[in-house]
Amino acid sequence: MSSIYIKRAQITDLNEIMNIISQAQAMLKADGSPQWQNGYPDTATLKNDIMAQQCWVLMVDNKVAGTATLIVADDPNYREITDGQWENNTDPYATIHRIAISGDFAGQHLGKIFVSNLISQSYQNGIRNFRIDTHKLNKRMQHLATSAGYVHRGKIYVSEPAVNHEDNARLAFELNL
Ranges for the N-acetyltransferase domain (predicted)? Predict the structure, then answer.
């Protein structure tokens, strides 16, 4: 069995993180999704995540196998939800953003382990409400969210570079423990 754990990302991990993000962008493009196709997320975004101690890496046998940003704060993109509503709109919540697994580790179901570890990290700090979003064409992320217990709650719009407004529409998911 492999040694699998999460740790806060360091600046020295940035090149590996950006390689994983590039792989994910290529996969989304191949799937026909406009998500992450207009320069987002870029190096500056991930560097800011690292400096804010919000970027995490999934380690497998001492190799960076995945990256994700875990934010415990009100997300302005989540304030307006259409076609549904949040179940818990009062308690603090943690949001997982910019999650990706290296193609070198594909097929090992590491995304579910990563999400579970991120939820556990937040749970230890008193967070019981979790949110995540993805594009309607990102079936992998939808499957990951629902397999981790998240429930589809509606649609939100994110503020990312996009060709048109509908490209910024995201399916919004919530998990309450």
Answer: 4-177
* Burial (CB count within 10 angstroms: exposed 0-12, middle 13-18, buried 19+), residue 74: exposed
| Token pair 């302005």 in the structure block, residue | 76
Q: Could you tell me which of 38, 170, 48, 75 has the C-alpha nearest to residue 17?
A: 48
**3 by DSSP, 3-state: which?**
coil
Q: Measured at the alpha carbon of residue 115, what is the angle toward residues 125 and 48, in degrees to the nearest 5?
A: 70
Reported as a pLDDT band with limits 50, 70 and 90, residue 98 is: very high
Average pLDDT over residues 94-107: 95
How would residue 69 be classed by pLDDT, with cut points 50, 70 and 90? very high
Return the CATH class of domain 4-176: alpha beta
Give the closest residue to 37 by CA, choosing from 162, 135, 164.
162
Q: What's the half-sphere exposure (Cβ side, CA atoms, 13 Å) at 95?
A: 17
Q: pTM (2 decimals)?
A: 0.92
| 3-class SS of residue 31 | coil
Look-up: residue for tokens 């990302």?
9
pLDDT value of position 158? 86
* Residue 140, token pair as written in the block: 């992998």
